[in-house]
Design brief:
This protein has one domain: TIM Barrel. 39% of the residues lie in helices and 14% in strands. Helix 6 packs parallel to helix 7. The longest helix is centred in the middle third of the chain and has 19 residues.
């Protein structure tokens, strides 16, 4: 595998405010994304992608894995039928102490209140074969908490979810994408197999498995924008970027 892209979604629903529009992928658009990825033959699950990066399995040379953060109920309701229809492997990162609750880390900043998945919905995802990972207990900024809380959020959420699911929880995603060496070491020490950041770019054998990169999908990303993001490994997409990119490569080759 030459390189792999991990996509990061949040809410599959229509936005309830302008503030959250960036994080809401409309259901019809989401299905177009999934159809495109399925037809490309590049879809893999996150565990298979990570194994291939470690030389323990095979994946397409430009594999794509889908992940979701937070565990919104709307995502369960709108995304699961699509994922099952296209047999699309996926990973959901859950905030363990907010299961059955709401997104208080967002409402405190003016975002609309949204319900998170219930225990029953989480178990339904498990039974459907979705890989379920941890996104801490309460979605804090891990770079701003003391060592005791750091361990509680990271190791505690793993224990919470394993107790609920009755299976190992091996994957983690840093809330807000924030981590430092202490956080990374705590995730590894808690027994996770790998962790996802929000740093954009492709993954290869040279990328640390506790600092995996992801490409964020925005609410306004049509299929052509998604295709461009998967081609260049960037969060942003524009009509002019490919021209800029190839012009830059040409100047480099010509020594200009």
């Amino acid at each position: 595998m030459n390189r792999a892209a991990i996509l990061m979604y949040h809410i599959v629903d229509r936005p309830q405010s302008a503030q959250e529009a960036k994080y809401c992928c409309p259901p019809q658009v989401f299905e177009e994304h999934v159809r495109y990825i399925a037809e490309s033959g590049r879809a893999v699950g996150l565990p298979e992608l990570i194994a291939a990066l470690q030389g323990e399995g095979n994946c397409p040379s430009d594999a794509v894995a889908i992940t979701f953060d937070d565990g919104f109920a709307a995502t369960f309701e709108n995304a699961m039928p699509v994922l099952e229809r296209y047999r699309m492997p996926t990973t959901m990162f859950l905030v363990s102490n907010r299961i059955g609750g709401h997104n208080d880390w967002m409402t405190s900043n003016g975002f609309p209140r949204r319900e998170l998945m219930t225990r029953e919905q989480v178990l339904s995802m498990r039974d459907a074969g979705v890989t379920l990972g941890s996104h801490t207990r309460s979605h804090p900024r891990l770079t701003e908490v003391d060592s005791a809380r750091l361990g509680d959020e990271i190791a505690g959420s793993k224990a919470d979810l394993e107790d609920l699911l009755g299976q190992e929880v091996g994957y983690f995603a840093y809330p807000f994408g924030l981590f430092d060496e202490a956080g990374r070491a705590c995730v590894e020490g808690a027994g996770y197999r790998a962790a996802c950041s929000t740093r954009s770019g492709f993954n290869s054998a040279q990328v640390g498995r506790f600092e995996l990169r992801r490409v964020e999908v925005f609410g306004w990303d049509t299929v052509w924008r998604l295709r461009q993001k998967l081609k260049f490994g960037r969060n942003e997409a524009s009509l002019t970027y490919p021209l800029q990119y190839y012009a830059g490569r040409l100047r480099t080759r010509l020594g200009l």
